[in-house]
Amino acid sequence: MMLINLEADKGTFLENLQIVRGPYLQVGTESSIIIRWATDAPVQGKVWYATNPHSLDSMEEETTMTCDHTIKLTGLTPDTKYYYAIGTSRGVQAGQTEDDFFVTAPSQNLMPEQVRPLRILVLGDAGRGNDIAASVRDGYLKFTGTRHTDLWLMLGDNAYDTGTYEEYQRGIFEMYPQLLRRSVLWTALGNHDAGSADSLLQTGPYYELFTMPTCGEAGGVPSGTAAYYSFDYGNIHFICLDSFGCTRTPEGAMLTWLAQDIGASQKDWKIAFWHHPPYTKGSHDSDTEIELIEMRERALPILEAAGVDIVLGGHSHSYERSYLIDGHYGTSDTFTQEMKKDGGSGREDESTSYQKPLHASHSGAVYIVAGTSALADEVVPHPAMYTSLSIPGSLVLDVHGKRLDVKFIDCQGKIQDHFTINRTIALA
Ligand SMILES: [Fe+2]
Questions:
Q1: Cα of 190 to ligand 1 centre, how many Å?
Q2: What pTM, to 2 d.p., does this model score?
């Protein structure tokens, strides 16, 4: 009879089992989070977690064998740091250190004195897996230091050239392992991602690799699709649109949903993001390209009527940041001074911050192209822009109650542009 050493067998199994992707965090809310990772052999995945890093005494386990692991943790406490580890019933494979943690979203109903600062990282056109992407990442990590990144957005073209699994591996999973395991990533689809993905069928690597809130489970009106969605985080309402793979007609499903969703939100801040920017004179031209023209003509009136504050895009490999503007839906030669709600810099150290009443229609928004997270091309000024830069970098949104500070960070961790929006009391 052959004797089996169970402990040795367990150790050998775990040594041979490789994590090939992740862990990474998705759809984080104040009470839940999804942890995903992939292994090179099918196993039943398991997550251990707790607020005490030395005693991960809560556990969630998959019920089937798979290589692609998705485990949702529920019943979590808002605004709380949880430590975690991943593995199988045979043991822990990764995590279980003081560096492996996530922080749940703040409670939706806080008193003003309870509100803490929130930090959001934004990367655009980042998916080249090149030295510039690594430098932009390191510049941000140097800038933020020990301060936690509450969440991060990717504005599309997250994997060049055609959005294959191999390109996501190089462009995202091997490039941002620290961010992926501690901060929830929310993605928008770009034209390069769409090279291997179908938004109508929601198939392909982009839709397989990322989990989106299709049922309103993170706040907002259910979109019913992973192509576009919304979510709440603290006092912010985020909206992600698909400017490439979905119909952009005014009566189409996406813009119909958009009007319902943003119209229903009572959050202090409304931030929209998608890939093809409404205003740019960089490596793409918003006067001549159909996706950019249609998003400007059709999505912007809906957003501005509902008081959107910030609109983020990529596609052009430039950094372009507008004044506080409203009502510009034509080509760049139709931009007028009257469309500037504030024609200043929005910098308190130079003049004054931008001021916006709470929940006020057509009160001005700042439009930002942040497409230099892996490449910086030449740019000429669009008349709506306060500044246009050809510098690799990332964007940081710092939200603290009724104040929003935006900073563009270069590869050295230095601030290359900044402005502030302050909420004011709406006058009757
Ligand atoms: Fe693009």
A1: 5
A2: 0.96
